[in-house]
Amino acid sequence: MNDSPSAFAPWSPSFVADPYPAYEALRAGGRAHWFEPTKQWLIPHHDDVNALLRDRRLGRTYLHRFTHEEFGRQAPPPEHEPFTTLNGNGMLDLEAPAHSRIRRLVAKAFTPRTVERLAPTVERLAAELVTGLYADGGGDLLARVAEPLPVAVIAEMLGIPASDRPLLRPWSAAITGMFELNPTEESAAAAVRASEEFSAYLRELIAARRTDPGEDLISALIAAQDEGDKLSEQEMVSTCVLLLNAGHEATVNTTTVGWLTLFRHPDQLQLLYDVPERLRDGVEEMLRYDTPLQMFERWVLDDIEVGGTVIPRGSEVALLFGSANRDPAVFRDPDRFDVTRPAADNRHLTFGAGIHYCLGAPLARLELSASFGTFLRDAPGMRLLKEPQWRPGYVIRGVEELQVTW
């Protein structure tokens, strides 16, 4: 055990820009580190992160077994409603049996066939966005391609009218601000406002689909049944918000940071131009090499032991995905960006593991393949105009913009 490791500095811009040397120090220093500023145990090794994601002695919530008082924690402040209800009814923050029930019902609506059916739409949207940026001779890839593509895909899937789609990204950005370490009250107030507005909007949309169902996912969620069981309205609202938030953050940041990595490794970019079929391996390597979600938190429901350190019930662990994905015990030459690393052997944890494994992973892979594939095929020769600034957030890590040109 190592107390408050000085290398780990999630509020430092230089750490956010490159956390990987600090992760190397954490891995060398042990398997569990107490971090006093957030009162969490940091877990940096791949095998430990992978095992704890699957360990039922940990949970995204503890309320299925304990009250706040029994668990030694304070209830969320009343002023954080309706964010607390919205977040607490999404399957990412639930445990069995509630999680199993909701995931089973959502899976009936969000099937592999749903993703397959979206493929032509994703390809068309990617082509429109990429060729638009190319025709203009460049611009901000983040604002012009990386953000609009997954938001448009999710909106299309949910059946949200095109005129309302500009509302989605600001709502999502405000809500996900609460997932950063020690969010400010200003962030909390923004998340509460967005939760209220987004929930009200979705309730209206759900009501409209009840009377006039369509081919969209909201209609499918309304219709989904399992032995007579159905999703409640709140569960549907929370599911839709989760699909938007989780369904585009990884794609947005992997697109921009992936391109930044390719610009910094021109030999690897050339390999993708030379053999387009390598893109499948290349996408998995981008997801591994610079992980969009750096940390995933879990509550310890029963005492556990990690590397000889007992972590008691009531503690919170921070599973460091970014560190796990650079662990030399699992990845050969882990700090080397290699687009020929075979996808089949690339055991990155970017989409999680266990019961909370990302339901939208196939959709994210489809979007990334379509976006990168279109650039490589139809808009070759793109280059970086200037080095980007990193956003201050550490947990969901990305750049402020990515200015490119031809």
Name the features:
406 residues; Cytochrome p450
Model description:
The protein has 406 residues and is α+β, with helices and mostly antiparallel strands. It has one domain (2-405): Cytochrome P450 (Cytochrome p450, Orthogonal Bundle), CATH 1.10.630.10. 49% of the residues lie in helices and 9% in strands. The protein contains 16 helices and 11 strands. It has helices spanning 13-17, 20-29, 46-54, 83-88, 98-109, 112-135, 141-146, 148-158, 168-176, 185-211, 217-223, 233-264, 266-274, 279-289, 321-324, 361-378; strands at residues 2-3, 33-35, 40-43, 58-59, 138-140, 295-300, 304-306, 309-311, 316-320, 383-384, 403-405. Strands 1-2-3-9-6-4 form a 6-stranded mixed sheet, sandwiched between helices. A 3-stranded antiparallel sheet has the order 5-11-10. A hairpin with a 4-residue loop joins β2 (33-35) and β3. α8 runs antiparallel to α12. It is globular and about 60 Å long. The termini are far apart. 43% of the residues are buried.
What is the count of helical runs? Answer: 16
Element pattern in H and E: EHHEEHEHHHEHHHHHHHHEEEEHHEE
Q: Mind telling me the CATH class?
A: Mainly Alpha
Which strand order does the major sheet show? Answer: 1-2-3-9-6-4
Number of strands: 11
Distance between the termini: 50 Å
Q: Return the CATH architecture.
A: Orthogonal Bundle
Helix content: 40-55%
Full CATH superfamily name: Cytochrome P450
Strand content: 5-15%
> What name is given to the CATH topology?
Cytochrome p450
Low-confidence blocks of residues: none
| Biggest β-sheet strands, sense, barrel | 6 strands, mixed
Shape type: globular
Helix/sheet category: alpha+beta
Mean pLDDT: 94
- The domain tally reads 1
Rg, Cα atoms, Å: 21 Å
